[in-house]
Every structure is written in structure tokens, then in C-alpha cells.
Write a structure and sequence with these properties.
The structure holds three protein chains of three kinds.
Chain A (H helix, E strand, L loop, with lengths): L5 H16 L25 E6 L3 H17 L5 E6 L3 H14 L5 E4 L1 H9 L7 H5 L7 H6 L2 H6 L1 E2 L2 E2 L7 E8 H6 L9 H13 L12 E5 L3 H9 L6 E2 L4 E2 L4 H15 L3 E3 L5 H7 L3 E7 L3 H11 L5 E4 L10 E4 L2 E4 L4 H14 L2 H11 L13 H6 L1 H7 L5 E3 L6 H16 L4 H17 L4
Parallel strand pairs in A: 1-2, 1-3, 7-10, 7-11, 13-15
Antiparallel strand pairs in A: 3-14, 4-5, 6-11, 6-12, 6-13, 8-9
Helix pairs in contact in A: 2-15, 12-13, 18-19
Chain B lengths: L1 H36 L1 E3 L3 E4 L3 H7 L2 H19 L1 H7 L5 H28 L2 H34 L4 H13 L2 H11 L7 H8 L14 H8 L8 H5 L3 H27 L3 H9 L4 H30 L2 H6 L11 H10 L4 H29 L4
Antiparallel strand pairs in B: 1-2
Chain C lengths: L1 H36 L3 H6 L10 H10 L1 H32 L5 H10 L5 H18 L8 H5 L6 H12 L3 H9 L4 H12 L1 H17 L2 H6 L8 H6 L9 H33 L4
Helix pairs in contact in C: 1-14, 3-14, 4-8, 4-11, 8-11, 8-14, 11-14
The chains are: A alpha/beta, B mainly alpha, C mainly alpha.
Chain lengths: ~450, ~375, ~280
């Protein structure tokens, strides 16, 4: 084992070798953006590869839609859908694809990932396609989109990705339990929310299998949950005018103070298993949960088939401003930088996919929310089947999105750590001050 | 002479296939990562920045020089301790000088080197190193002690050796994705989780396990009624979340260590024990003077494998990591993963990976020098 | 005499008490996993300890939902190819490192060990770039095909290390005798060493099999279609973004674990024997 001595020498040698030979090509030829006249491009017969993360029921419906597009589109475009793993796997695949020049035509991307791809010239700006006379959207169509959704996917002057669907962060509540305790409906203010949480702690739900455990709310440690609660107090995490994070605010403080207080009183707990709050909600051990509306089908089957069975619904988180504010988010679709004909073909599919007919089918199967307002008229069946979906749908108008600033992914992690620190009993002033300072540092120095 | 040439030629022919693959997929990526670490590199290559990433991660370069100097000084002092004391022979001055040199070099290492580096360097790197150190220190000695005990019991058993060996080994061959998910559920903070049911049996309140970022010592002090303990205690001991992960790690690897140690025990010739018995040694003396020295090569081998293993551990920590644990379970390999996938910064992540590489190499070398010498090869 | 018997009894008690308690600890998570896989979803939500009625149907559903059929077959082929390749390559390399004296042996061994010290997340990207270069510039189809999934793992430092440890322990007289008979290294390796290597080879084979069976990130990177994807991809489909289905997830985990455990039961004697021999010489 004395041979281990050589390891450092070898690594040094490798460094030198690498320095000598240099890396892969500086800028690949396929990247050059010739000013092509969009109107003259022919997308006839192009193959489009589409990487997504959906599995099981959602995948089945997506593939059915793709099949229909392939049969009916007038250009003979063929889309091939490919399951590419989870969001991280897709990022991973895209990173290597950009470096080896083999990007897919269409892929699912979060806004921060899309920004990274765009900066690395792996995806294209969609605004020329949207504005194109021949291929683009009419003013009428454009107005049909919820403006906030399109806005979320912009970066500077570029439309770096395009929304296929969205989700809302909603408050799930147990209607029967509320009625048992003599409340008429869900809380509209934070004060009411706290009262109901305390009441739930003292009055276990009649159908609960374990009455010794009775909670008002379970807090999932995630920046989106915190954002929702801050939004509900008319606050924000980011100030676009000053281009800085605002995390050490009164809204943040009252949010955390309330959580801390309710936790100490035993009315609130932190979620400790994957979807543990959903599980406890379905057996009547927790009154409220705050989660994405995309969980609706899971809540429905959990409560109505596998849980203890009760009436339930969703609503906006409590609010203290003039009207509710609901956090809206969701991954989008980006078009890979391939060649003009393929890019156009991908856009044609994207445009087709967001048309109301297709949107209606997609959201019916996935329980996501459509991105175009006119889809609503085609959703009667879904509304009928899922009154909860209808309730959530009515909240779309109150949508507000989390910061689209650079490096928000890092900031999310920072927020989560700080929230846990405060709930663990650390000094709130100090932790929040540090949080804001660090978050703003990521703006200056996005690289680290 | 021809013989020599044929020998060498045969050796290279035999090595060729494995070496070809290893160079392409093992060494080349290391070299490539060095190249990446010297550039601004998010998804594509940016400008060349030399050692800037390293400096950013490690902190003040001056402190690094001090650290290296202190280590060199320390090494010289220890290496030539006999000489130093000989020069000033007889008088106690030799000892005093030696101790002074020792404290002096340690002071340089810590006060001028490490402390400044930690202050000026990247928090994630140093937190990662700290957590990794807890992880290794918490795992390896316990694992080896329990494995030694089990191996001894197996060695003494008369029947069922094969069956026990079979069952002890099960955790090691189970896919990590499956077993880590199970442990995540077992160590959940829910009052009805397995770990909390066991606590309830002992009459204890439920614990937060994988969600607990407070150190185990801190929790102990709290349970003894001292909730205002000094804050350095949480920094100096592993969190309960990390300890839960350590327990998983021990669970997985104990069978492996036991079986290897059992083989080591079985290889000890009977005469040694008989001779010890004739000398009237009690069982502890037999263990201390016969068994332990004779299995020391095996223990050494196991500790080497464990050091490399714990420093690179990733999959199960990634699965068992929770937001509640904050940074208390973020070992270096987790920090590297975050840098690549959340911060989109491959250049910086590669630099950190090389610092890890250097640390593992250094530790393996040290282990070889310090422990390797004590190993008794019969 | 009576005292001797009592001492013997105490000893038996301590030995078996200790062993049995650790066996309980090491088997407990399996019991938990199997129990959870046999519950209804309602039972997992209520966190009961035992299923009221055993739900074998979970296995059928998990099998169908994850599309395990194809993945199973893929994983088998990938694992077997990888095991064969690794064994041949590693045995040759280990023999050369252990039994032949030549210049540079130490450096090569150190280089091989160096590959163990870098986290996989860092090497994944450059390895993909290499594969895609090979895909474009050699006649073989690498991506979406077995070469990308198996060849990069055929040179495995740990396998070489384990086999080298074993080969170094072989008595030198064997080679001396063979040399007098005029045997080459090649003949010596295949006629004399190979039959002796059964246990260590099975051990290394088992490790490779486990590694191949569990791989997830790399196979996803180098394949775009299900035709060559392994079983862990199927398992991942139960990790949805919106709901917990522990019973199906555990049924899937049992299905994915079963072949590894089966392989282990079949060769466990040689496996433990092979493992035992690796740690004896420094």
C-alpha cells in the first residue's frame, strides 16, 4: 500500500496533460443564429423529441394527445414523447446534451433550469415564434392566456419557456370536522385560522382512528409554503423595482411567529414523511394542509376510498389584505436549439398543445390548471366530478408567482434552512437578517 | 533478458482491457474535472480562471501556507523527537523543548491556519468536511467494535454458523434505494414510527430523528434539564439526524465487517491460544495479546475500506436527508451534488471534489503510516 | 463438573443471545417492508402494524403500473453482460498486478485506486461526453444500447483490488511448479488459478450484479427509450410529485430486491468465503 504515495504525482501529471490538450470545441457551429425568415421555413415531416417527467396516468394521457397530434397535423410532424426521469434527471440529461450538441426539441424545465439552459445557448427564445404572422398567436389567442403565466417564463426580453399547465397552492380543509366544532366554513383570516387550529387540537375528529393525535395544521418545510403564507399577508419575497429579495419583513415575521406559537401549543407540527400531511389529513388527524392543487386526485382517493371518509374542500390560504393571494407555479416547456425547421415543428406542437381542446383533455387527466381562460367552458365534466377542482379553479384570478430572480433555487434552500432554524428556537431577528443578506448576495454573485 | 521482456509484455497484455476502460471512464474524467475546475463552468465552458475556485473554497491562501508550514513543522518535530531530546540529553530541557515545539506547531496549524481558512473560506466546504468527519468517526469505530464482538460470538458458536452468516449479510446485499426508504420511514418523527414506538416502550417521548438538527449531546443535556447549554456543543457533536443515518450505515456494513473478521479469527493457529492458556492468561489477556494483534491486518484493511467508503457516501444520505436536518447531514458529496444540480455550477463543484480527493488521499496515506506500522504481520 | 456445565450453558446463552438479537435487528427492516407491501393504502395511511387481510394484489398492480416486465429483462441482460466483462477484465488485471513483476506496477495500481476517490456526480458528465464521442466516431451504437450501459463499468477498481488481494495469498510454489512444467502465465492462470478462484470470482460477480441492478442516474442519462432501461427506472415511477402510495412503493421495492437476494442465497457460501479472503493480507 506504500504505492499510495504516487497518487498525488499522478493527479499532478493529469492536470498538466489536461492543460496541454485543452477542452472540447469552443462554440459549436450549430449554435450560429443565422437570421432566418421564420415565415419561409417549412416544418414538413420533422421529427420532434419531447422529454417529460410524467408517469403513470399522466403519461398515458400525454402519449394519447401526442398520438392525436401526429395523426392530425397538416405538416406531417411526428412528435416522440420520452420519459426522461425526474426533474433532476432531465436537467442532468440536458446538461450533457448541450455539451455534446444533442439537445431534444422539447423538454420540461423549471424556470431556473430554463435560465441556465438559455444562458448556455441550449434553448431558444420563443417570442419570434409567438409573434410570427404565419405560425404565431393572434392577439385574441394571446389575450386568452393568463398573463402572469407567460410572464413567469420570461427572462429579460426573451420568452425562454412556455407554460403547458400550472398548479396553485391551496388550503385543504376537512369540512365535516369544521362543522363538528361549530365553524361555518374555512378560515378567511389568519386569526380565524389560529382559532380553528387550536380548536382542532382540543376536539379530535369523530372518525379519527387515533384521537390522541389531533392537529390543526401540518407545515411542510418548503419555500413555496412559506411564500404562500407571506403572500396571504399581502407580502412578497422579492421587490422587482429594487431588484432585491425582501425576506426580513413584517409579513415573514408574523407568519413565522404564528407557526412558532401554534407549534409550541401543540396545534401545529412539521411534516416528517413524504406526503405525511396528506396521509394524516385523510384519516382526520389534521384539519388543514397547504399543498399544490396537483395533489387533488391523490387527496380524493386518499380521503374517499382509503381514509376515514368525510366531506372536504380546498380554498385560498387565509389573507389579511383586500383580497386573497394564491401562489401559482409549475414547470414549463422549453424548445431546444436544434435547427430552424425542427424548432418550428416543436413550436407548432406546443401551440397545439395549449389550445383549449387539448388543454381540456390534459387538465382533466392531470388535474393541473389550464393556461388559457377559454378552456373553462370545456371543463364541465371535470367540475362535476371534482367540486374541489372547481373551487380551486376559481382562485386562478388571485394567482401570484414566486420570484423569477436569478438564483432563486439557492434562495429556496436558504429560506428552508432559516425557517427550520427559527422553528427550532433560534433568534428570529438574527436569522432573518442573515437570510436576507445571503439571498441578496446570490443576486450579485450568481456563480456561487 | 528475453524472459524479462516476455514477463512485462504478458503483464501489459493482461492489464490492457481493464486499463483501457479504466483510463477512459475512470482517469480521463478526473483529468477532465481538473480542467473544468479551472474554468467558470456552468453548463458550457466559460473563461479560464486558474485556481480561483480553489481559493474561494479554501479561503485565505496565506492561511493555507501557514497550515502547510505548521503541518510540516509538526511532522518534523514528531519525526525527530528522539534526536531533539538526545541533543539536549539528560536534562529535562529536552522534553520541554520538544513539548514547546509540539504546541507551537499545533498553534500554527489551528490558530494561523485552519481557523482563518474556515472564516474566510466557503462555509459549505468546511461544514461538509466537519459533517463528513462526524460521519466517519461515528461510523468506523462502532462498526468495527460491534463487528469484532459479533465475529467473536460467531467464532464461539457451535452450530448455525452458516445460517447466522447468511442473515447478518442480508442488509449488505439489499439495494440501497429500497433499504434507505424503509429507514426513512422507521426514523420518521411521527409518534407511530418504528423508532418512536421503541422509545415509547421505554417510556420516552417521541423524538424527531431525521428531522432533528440539534446535536445528540445537546439533546441529552436538554433531557437532563439544562436547556441553556453553550452553543458550541451543537457545533462539536453530530446531530440526531446524522446519528440516525450513521445507524443505518452501521446496520448495512456490519455483516460485511463481521464476516471478514470471522475469517481473520479462524485463521489464527490454535497453538497460540494453547500457549496462552498454559501461561495462565485470562480471557481479556488472551484477547489483548493474542487475538487483537493477529487480526490487526484485517482490522486495518476494514478501516481503510471504511474511510474511503464514508468519505464518498452519497446515495443513502441523499435519500434520508430532510429539510429539518438543515445542514447537519450535508457531507461533502452532498454539497458537491447541490452545487451541480441546484447552483448549476460544475466548475466550482469540481474544485470541491478535488479538495475531497486530496483529503481522502492524505487520510489514506496517514492511516498507512500511523496505523500500518502498528499492524502485526506475524 | 457441574460448574463446567453451568459455565458452558452461560456461554451458550451469551453467544446465541447476542447473535440472535443482532439477526433480529438486521432482518427487522425487511419484515417492515414486506408487511407494508401487503397492506391496503388505508392501512398505510392509518399506520397500523399488521395488515388485516393480506393484499397480494399490490404486487400485481405494482408490476403493471411500473411496467416491470420489460425492465426486468433489461436489467438481467445488462447485469449479466456487466458481470461477465468485469470478471474477465478484472481477473486478468489482478493477476498481472499480483503475480507478475514488472516496472510501473505500483504506479498503475495507485492510478487504479485513485479512480475510487472522486464522487460519481462529478465524473458522470465527462463520461457521457466520451460515450457520445464514441457513438459518433466508432461503428458501434453506444447510446440507447448495451455498450453505454455496461462497458464503462467493466474496469472496476474495487473488483481488481479484491481479486488482487486473493491472488497475492496464493502460495508461490504453485507458480514455481507450473513454470518447471513450462507453463506460460496464460496457461497457469486458466488451468490452475481459475479453478481456485471460484469463491472470489463469485464474490466480485455478486458486487457487480448489485451495482448493475441498482444503477439509476447513469442509465437514464444514456438511454432515451424504455428498450434498454433497467428496473430502478420502473421503481422511480412510484415516487410521484403529489401523493404517497407506500404500499405500492414497497411492493415495487420487494420485487426489485428479490432477484438480488435470490442470487445471494444461491451463492452465499462462496460469497462469504470470497469476502473472507479479501481482508487477510495487507
Amino acid at each position: 500500500m506504500t504505492t499510495m504515495k504516487i497518487v498525488p504525482c499522478v493527479s499532478l501529471m493529469l492536470i498538466l496533460v489536461q492543460l496541454g490538450c485543452g477542452g472540447p470545441g469552443e462554440r459549436d457551429s450549430w449554435l450560429t443564429d443565422d437570421p432566418v425568415e421564420l415565415e419561409t421555413i417549412d416544418p414538413q415531416g420533422q421529427e420532434v423529441t419531447f422529454w417529460y417527467q410524467h408517469s403513470r396516468e399522466r403519461e398515458t394521457e400525454l402519449l394519447a394527445l401526442i398520438g392525436e397530434f401526429n395523426r392530425t397535423n397538416p405538416h406531417g410532424i411526428r412528435v416522440r414523447g420520452e420519459y426522461a426521469g425526474g426533474y433532476n434527471d432531465i436537467y442532468n440529461k440536458m446538461v450533457v446534451a448541450i455539451q455534446s450538441g444533442t439537445v431534444p426539441d422539447l423538454l420540461v424545465a423549471y424556470q431556473n433550469q430554463a435560465r441556465a439552459y438559455y444562458q448556455a445557448e441550449g434553448i431558444v427564445d420563443l417570442s419570434p415564434y409567438m409573434e410570427s404572422e404565419r405560425w404565431g398567436l393572434t392577439q385574441e389567442e394571446l389575450d386568452d392566456f393568463y398573463p402572469a403565466f407567460l410572464q413567469q417564463d420570461r427572462y429579460g426580453d426573451a420568452q425562454i419557456c412556455f407554460p403547458p399547465n400550472r398548479s396553485l397552492e391551496v388550503l385543504y380543509y376537512n369540512k365535516d370536522w369544521l362543522a363538528e366544532m361549530g365553524f361555518e366554513g374555512p378560515p378567511s383570516t389568519w386569526q380565524e385560522f389560529a382559532t380553528m387550529c387550536r380548536a382542532a387540537r382540543d376536539n379530535p375528529f369523530s372518525k379519527s382512528p387515533r384521537p390522541s393525535r389531533s392537529l390543526g395544521f401540518m407545515l411542510d418545510i418548503d419555500a413555496s409554503r412559506i411564500a404562500s403564507m407571506v403572500f396571504g399577508r399581502a407580502g412578497d419575497l422579492y421587490c422587482p423595482e429594487e431588484q432585491r429579495y425582501t425576506l426580513d419583513t413584517e409579513e415573514m415575521r408574523t407568519t413565522l411567529r404564528l407557526m412558532l406559537e401554534l407549534m409550541r401549543e401543540g396545534a401545529v407540527e412539521i411534516v416528517g414523511d413524504d406526503h405525511g400531511d396528506q396521509a394524516e389529513f385523510s384519516v382526520g388527524q389534521v384539519l388543514f394542509t397547504l399543498r399544490s392543487s396537483s395533489g387533488l386526485p391523490f387527496y380524493r382517493s386518499a380521503v374517499e376510498q382509503d381514509g376515514v371518509g368525510f366531506r372536504w374542500n380546498v380554498t385560498n390560504p387565509p389573507y389579511s389584505g383586500d383580497q386573497p393571494v394564491v401562489n401559482v407555479y409549475g414547470a414549463s416547456l422549453a424548445v431546444g436549439r436544434t435547427n430552424p425547421s425542427r424548432q418550428l415543428a416543436a413550436w407548432i406542437f406546443l401551440k397545439w398543445f395549449t389550445q383549449p381542446e387539448q388543454q381540456a383533455r390534459w387538465v382533466t387527466a392531470s388535474n393541473y390548471f389550464p393556461v388559457r381562460k377559454s378552456t373553462a367552458v370545456k371543463l364541465d365534466e371535470l367540475f362535476e366530478r371534482s367540486p374541489q377542482y372547481r373551487s380551486a379553479y376559481q382562485l386562478l384570478q388571485y394567482g401570484k408567482s414566486e420570484p423569477a430572480a436569478a438564483g432563486y433555487q439557492q434562495v429556496r434552500r436558504l429560506i428552508q434552512n432559516s425557517v427550520v432554524a427559527i422553528l427550532d428556537g433560534e433568534n428570529m431577528d438574527r436569522v432573518l437578517r442573515q437570510l436576507e443578506e445571503r439571498a441578496n448576495r446570490t443576486l450579485l454573485d450568481e456563480l456561487y | 533478458m528475453t524472459n524479462r521482456i516476455t514477463e512485462t509484455l504478458t503483464a501489459w497484455i493482461f492489464l490492457a482491457p481493464a486499463l483501457l476502460v479504466l483510463t477512459t471512464f475512470g482517469l480521463f474524467p478526473i483529468g477532465y474535472a481538473v480542467f473544468v475546475s479551472m474554468h467558470q463552468w456552468r453548463i458550457r465552458k466559460g473563461i479560464f480562471i486558474g485556481l480561483e475556485h480553489y481559493q474561494r473554497a479554501l479561503g485565505d491562501p496565506q492561511a493555507l501556507v501557514w497550515l502547510a508550514f505548521g503541518c510540516l513543522f509538526l511532522w518534523l518535530t514528531v519525526r525527530y523527537r528522539a534526536r531533539i531530546r538526545q541533543v539536549l540529553s539528560g536534562s529535562p530541557i529536552g522534553l520541554v523543548v520538544y513539548l514547546l515545539l509540539l504546541t507551537g506547531s499545533l498553534w500554527i496549524v489551528f490558530a494561523k491556519g485552519l481557523t482563518v481558512m474556515v472564516e474566510t473560506g466557503d462555509h459549505r466546504l468546511y461544514n461538509g468536511l466537519r459533517v463528513t468527519a462526524f460521519y466517519a468517526i461515528g461510523t468506523i469505530p462502532v462498526q468495527l467494535t460491534v463487528a469484532m464482538l459479533l465475529a467473536y460470538l460467531l467464532f464461539m458458536s457451535l452450530w448455525g454458523k452458516g445460517a447466522f452468516r447468511l442473515l447478518l449479510f442480508l442488509p449488505y446485499v439489499t439495494p440501497v434505494i429500497a433499504s434507505a426508504v424503509v429507514f426513512r420511514a422507521i426514523f420518521s418523527p411521527h409518534p407511530a414510527s418504528m423508532a418512536n414506538r421503541i422509545r415509547a416502550l421505554l417510556g420516552l417521548a417521541p423524538s424527531r430523528w431525521l428531522y432533528e438538527s440539534t446535536s445528540v449531546v445537546g439533546l441529552l443535556l436538554e433531557s437532563l434539564g439544562w436547556s441553556q447549554y453553550p452553543s458550541w456543543i451543537d457545533a462539536a457533536f453530530p446531530s440526531l439526524a446524522l446519528v440516525s443515518i450513521i445507524m443505518y450505515n452501521i446496520w448495512v456494513y456490519i455483516g460485511y465487517a463481521t464476516v471478514i473478521l470471522l475469517a481473520g479469527l479462524s485463521a489464527i493457529p490454535k497453538q497460540y491460544y494453547e500457549a496462552a492458556e498454559i501461561d495462565g492468561a485470562n480471557s481479556w489477556q488472551v484477547f489483548r495479546n493474542v487475538t487483537l494483534p493477529l487480526v490487526s491486518p484485517t482490522l486495518f484493511f476494514l478501516s481503510m475500506v471504511a474511510v474511503i467508503g464514508t468519505f464518498k457516501a452519497f446515495n443513502h444520505i441523499y435519500i434520508m436527508r430532510t429539510p429539518g436536518a438543515r445542514e447537519s447531514v450535508d457531507v461533502i458529496s452532498i454539497a458537491i451534488f447541490d452545487l451541480i444540480f441546484e447552483y448549476h455550477n460544475a466548475g466550482y463543484a469540481s474544485a470541491i471534489a478535488f479538495i475531497l480527493f486530496a483529503v481522502i488521499t492524505f487520510l489514506t496515506l496517514m492511516q498507512n503510516r500511523l496505523l500500518g506500522r502498528r499492524v502485526f504481520y506475524g | 463438573m457441574a460448574k463446567g456445565v453451568r459455565q458452558h450453558r452461560i456461554r451458550t446463552f451469551v453467544v446465541y443471545g447476542g447473535l440472535i438479537s443482532w439477526v433480529l435487528v438486521s432482518c427487522f427492516p425487511f419484515v417492515w417492508m414486506i408487511l407494508a407491501s401487503l397492506m391496503t393504502r388505508g392501512e398505510t395511511l392509518r399506520r397500523v402494524l399488521l395488515p388485516a387481510n393480506i393484499q397480494w394484489g399490490n404486487y400485481v398492480r405494482a408490476w403493471q403500473d411500473a411496467g416491470f416486465g420489460l425492465y426486468f429483462q433489461n436489467s438481467m441482460i445488462i447485469a449479466l453482460l456487466q458481470v461477465t466483462g468485469t470478471l474477465v477484465f478484472s481477473l486478468l488485471a489482478a493477476y498481472s498486478l499480483a503475480r507478475i513483476e514488472f516496472r510501473g506496477r505500483g504506479v498503475i495500481f495507485a492510478c487504479i485506486l485513485a479512480t475510487l476517490m472522486i464522487p460519481d456526480s462529478v465524473t458522470m458528465v465527462p463520461n457521457f461526453l466520451t460515450i457520445s464521442w464514441l457513438h459518433r466516431n466508432t461503428p458501434m451504437t453506444w447510446l440507447n444500447n448495451w455498450p453505454a450501459l455496461t462497458i464503462p463499468f467493466m474496469g472496476n477498481a474495487f473488483s481488481i483490488f479484491l481479486l488482487r488481494q486473493f491472488l497475492r495469498g496464493l502460495p508461490g510454489e504453485l507458480w514455481e511448479a507450473a513454470r518447471i512444467d513450462g507453463a506460460t502465465h496464460f496457461r497457469f492462470l486458466f488451468q490452475i488459478v481459475l479453478p481456485l478462484c471460484r469463491a472470489p470470482l463469485l464474490t466480485v460477480g455478486m458486487f457487480t450484479f448489485i451495482g448493475a441492478w441498482n444503477a439509476l442516474a447513469w442509465p437514464l442519462l444514456v438511454t432515451n427509450r424504455p428498450d434498454w432501461r433497467p428496473i430502478s427506472v420502473g421503481l422511480q415511477k412510484f415516487v410521484t410529485e403529489a401523493g404517497a402510495e407506500i404500499h405500492l412503493q414497497m411492493a415495487g421495492a420487494v420485487i426489485a430486491t428479490a432477484p438480488v437476494l435470490l442470487a445471494y442465497f444461491l451463492i452465499q457460501r462462496e460469497f462469504t468465503e470470497g469476502i473472507s479472503m479479501s481482508g487477510l493480507k495487507g
